[in-house]
Q: What sequence folds into this?
């Protein structure tokens, strides 16, 4: 079955460390996204990529970095510059052009990051 | 940017009751989705509905694009319907990103 796999489900980071969250999809979607969710809040966009080797900052990109070397993969690195990284991180993918068919976003199951 | 407002913010129902959740948005959209976030955080895609009406079992949704709102109907609610329901929209100008509302938190009690 096609879908999005995020790993790990839980991640603990020490102060000053960089950590990388994995996101892999086998849906053959061109576009991929990273969202952050804080407790009781909606989702906010960190980074997105429309195509391989291209990505753009979202609304809250400071302290994060991404790469898109393969269509299937869009890893997110939470750097030490991100001062409040404890949150739930969700990866998504979509076909970027709309108007035909029943397209939409598909989300992975998320990674909970905690600073210890 | 586009604004997405959901109401009510919280809703408590007895099992078997019906409910209507509302999503208002401030600009024209080419994508509107309803999601259910379960207690483990998984976002389940309920409907892709930029316009018109769709039904899936006990759930149905209607989007009136010209009036910039969408409604999600839950009939004969069950305890497994508990969680947070998000509306998310994408503007219809170029490549845009899904913008989420703040959600409606639903609790269905037995």
A:
């Amino acid at each position: 079955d096609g879908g999005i796999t995020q790993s790990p489900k839980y991640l603990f980071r020490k102060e000053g460390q960089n950590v990388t969250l994995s996101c892999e999809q086998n849906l053959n979607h061109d576009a991929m996204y990273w969202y952050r969710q804080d407790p009781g809040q909606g989702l906010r966009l960190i980074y997105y990529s429309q195509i391989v080797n291209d990505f753009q900052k979202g609304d809250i990109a400071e302290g994060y970095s991404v790469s898109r070397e393969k269509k299937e993969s869009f890893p997110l690195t939470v750097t030490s510059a991100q001062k409040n990284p404890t949150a739930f991180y969700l990866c998504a993918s979509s076909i970027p052009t709309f108007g035909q068919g029943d397209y939409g976003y598909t989300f992975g199951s998320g990674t909970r990051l905690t600073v210890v | 940017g586009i604004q997405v407002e959901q109401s009510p913010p919280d809703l408590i129902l007895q099992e078997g009751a019906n409910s209507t959740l509302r999503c208002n948005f401030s600009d024209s959209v080419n994508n509107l989705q309803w999601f259910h976030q379960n207690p483990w955080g998984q976002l389940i895609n309920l409907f892709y509905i930029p316009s018109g009406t769709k039904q899936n079992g006990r759930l149905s949704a209607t989007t009136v694009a010209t009036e910039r709102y969408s409604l999600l109907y839950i009939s004969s609610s069950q305890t497994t319907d508990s969680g947070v329901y998000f509306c998310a929209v994408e503007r219809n100008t170029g490549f845009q990103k899904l913008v989420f509302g703040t959600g409606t938190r639903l609790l269905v009690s037995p």
